[in-house]
From TrEMBL:
Source species, domain of life: Eukaryota
Subcellular location: Cell membrane
Protein species of origin: Rattus norvegicus
Keywords: Cell membrane, G-protein coupled receptor, Membrane, Olfaction, Receptor, Sensory transduction, Transducer, Transmembrane, Transmembrane helix
Annotated protein name in UniProt: Olfactory receptor
Gene Ontology CC, one term: plasma membrane
One matching Pfam family: 7tm_4
Protein encoded by which gene: Or10u3
Length: 320
């Protein structure tokens, strides 16, 4: 880090900017990585935006399940946009720095979106639980007002919890070289730069992660236990297949999201290494958001049909 990135305070030099060095060791591969991440980013944004537009223009998809799916697609677009554009810039420049304020803003955005997604996935599981286990009460329980409240609660939980946690993290003093062994401002790599004992901070971060990641996860697991038991009791094979097909996409997305989240934030500190942190971070910041549009379009018959009809209408208008 240059001297301009340090602020003197007595005998300590406090950081005013950080250097993200995860990509520096891949100098020869940076042009290739730039193209790969750029294509992935454009595909992710385009795919999720397409899902939102298809749901918006197709009246048959104006149901709670697709309302939550549109919310999830919006979340994924914002989530990948909080990390990848900066990473693309850093792949083109030699000095890969970010101001402390910029680092804080990035952490606010991706942590809020990450926790909101945890809660939203739990809400989507609840929607499937009511639809399959209590179909006669579905309209009453999952009306427009209830859907808005559930989505709003997901967003408010993410905003309140992660705003408090990130604000607390950035009250720590950061000194020294300010070198982050990562490609974005993730929680643990930033906390490690503090020039005070952060053991208590790390315990609190672990507890917050345990509560707010595991609670939605356990709720999803319990919901799907009930769902599976209900499906197995259905007398018709066609009914069982239809019921399971409405859940399969959600199960895949939950598995991808929670698999990386649990591995990243709930593993013991002794198992954290820069390489494993970077590998899992690539999964949940780049790969998972890119796979979600594929999962929901290839495995969802209604979305595929709606997309096909929308495409056909556009082609007919162009011909006319």
């Amino acid at each position: 880090m240059s001297n301009s990135g340090l602020r003197k305070n007595g005998s300590l030099s406090f950081c005013s900017e950080f250097t993200l060095v995860a990509l520096s060791s891949l100098a020869e591969l940076q042009p290739v990585l730039f193209l790969v991440f750029l294509v992935t980013y454009l595909f992710t944004v385009g795919g999720n935006l397409t899902i939102i537009c298809v749901i918006w223009v197709t009246r048959s998809l104006h149901t709670p399940m697709y309302f939550f799916l549109a919310n999830l697609s919006f979340l994924e677009m914002c989530y990948i946009s909080s990390v990848v554009p900066q990473m693309l810039v850093h792949l083109l420049v030699q000095i890969k720095t970010i101001s402390v304020r910029g680092c804080a803003v990035q952490m606010y955005i991706f942590t809020i979106l990450g926790l909101t997604e945890c809660c939203l996935l739990a809400t989507m599981a609840y929607d499937r639980f009511v639809a399959i286990c209590h179909p006669l009460h579905y309209t009453l329980r999952m009306g427009p007002s209830a859907c808005l409240k559930l989505a709003g609660a997901s967003w408010m939980t993410g905003i309140l919890v992660e705003s408090a946690q990130t604000t607390w993290i950035f009250t720590l003093p950061f000194c020294g070289a300010g070198t982050i062994q990562h490609f974005f401002c993730d929680i643990m790599p930033v906390v490690k730069l503090a020039c005070v004992d952060t053991s208590q901070n790390e315990i609190v971060i672990f507890i917050i992660s345990l509560i707010f990641i595991m609670s939605p996860c356990l709720f999803i697991l319990c919901s799907y236990v009930r769902i599976i038991l209900t499906i197995l009791k259905m007398p018709s094979a066609a009914g069982r297949h239809k019921a399971f097909s409405t859940c399969s996409s959600h199960i895949l997305v939950v598995s991808l999201f929670y698999g990386t989240a649990l591995f990243t934030y709930l593993q013991p500190k002794s198992l954290h290494t820069p390489d494993t942190d970077k590998a899992t971070a690539l999964m949940y910041t780049v790969v998972t958001p890119a796979l979600n549009p594929v999962i929901y379009t290839l495995r969802n018959k209604e979305v595929k049909e709606a997309f096909h009809k929308a495409t056909q209408r556009k082609l007919h208008r162009q011909k006319d």
